[in-house]
Amino acid sequence: MIYSIKQELYKLVHRKITWIAAIILFFLMLITGFALADESKKLILTLTFDSSDFIMFILVIVGATCFSMEFQNNTILTLLYKSSNKIYVYLSKYIVLFLYNVFLHLLALFYTICLRYTIFNYQVNWSASYLYHQPVWLNMITASLIDLVTTMLIIAIVFLLSCLINSSAIVITASLLVTFMGQSISSDLMNGGKLVNIMKWNPFNMVDLTRQYGNYGMYVLTTHLNNQELLVGSLIYIFIFIIAGYFIFRRKRF
Questions:
Q1: In the 8-state DSSP scheme, what is residue 220?
Q2: Does the model's pTM come out above 0.70?
Q3: Statement: residue 88 has pLDDT above 90
Q4: Is 129 helix (H, G, I), strand (E, B) or coil?
Q5: Does residue 67 sit in helix, strand or coil?
Q6: What's the rounded Cα separation, in Å, for the pair 11 and 23?
Q7: Sign of CA dihedral 55, 60, 66, 72
Q8: Cβ neighbourhood burial of 218 (10 Å; 0-12, 13-18, 19+)
Q9: I want to staple 158 with a disulfide (CB 3.0 to 4.6 A). Which of 33, 63, 142, 236 is the partner?
């Protein structure tokens, strides 16, 4: 297992997209700062210049190519040959992508602090009370931790799709639809009204966890779940999708 993780880390570190994406993240956050100049500065800092959407986009691309490209090029056979168990190959990829996810969120926090004191120079007191009667700095850290859960749910979905479909282009497209259209899909599922108590637990609904933390009053009317329920639902679906993805991967013929 340790060998598989080291191997995946080596591949990730030596991929150009890993570092190019980190640079692109900064410029996307910078553009967001200019675009949302008239919005609440506290909200911009809390949501780290809307970095959650950009990080999701990056993880979908990196995660999809992580599996699908190896299926397409048959390099997955080499990994399976060198590993004593298929589960090590599968979990090592997920663990390494989780570490990259943590890295991107820490980078977003660093970029946010730099932008706050340089280009935008927001006159915001970090200890000022904001969401949930907590200081801005705690809101920002909490939002980042919550987004780790949301993005790991997306990664679990990407892995499941990657094990079902060998084409990275199709996996990326399908994953982006889930990521950025999850709210619309969820709303359509609950439009009937009669099954809201059941349909509100659909996995697409959980994608709004980070957005709801930053704007509870608006999103809770759509999700019909509070933050704690969305968090628990996300963790459960992460577990379900990881297990389902592994069973498909284990039975897959290479």
A1: H
A2: yes
A3: no
A4: strand
A5: helix
A6: 19
A7: negative
A8: exposed
A9: 63
Does residue 206 contact residue 224 with C-beta atoms inside 8 Å?
no
- Residue 190, CA atoms < 13 Å, CB-side half-sphere: 21
Q: What's the confidence (pLDDT) of residue 97? A: 93
Select from 80, 88, 3, 87 the least CA-distant residue to 253: 80
Asked whether residue 132 carries a pLDDT value surpassing 60, the answer given is yes
190 CB-near residues (< 8 Å, 6+ apart): 196, 199, 200, 224
Q: What is the 3-state secondary structure (H, E, C) of 22-49?
A: HHHHHHHHHHHHHHCCCCCHHHHHHCHH
**High-pLDDT (> 90) share of the chain, %:** 48
Q: What is the pLDDT of residues 147-160, one digit of tens each?
A: 999 999 999 998 88
Rg (CA), the chain: 19
Tokens of 114: 């730099």
Q: How far is 153 from 201, CA to CA, in rounded Å?
A: 14
The mean-pLDDT minimum among 88-92, 111-115, 184-188, 236-240 falls in: 184-188
What percent of the chain clears pLDDT 70, i.e. is strictly above it? 88
Decide: helix, strand or coil at residue 191.
coil
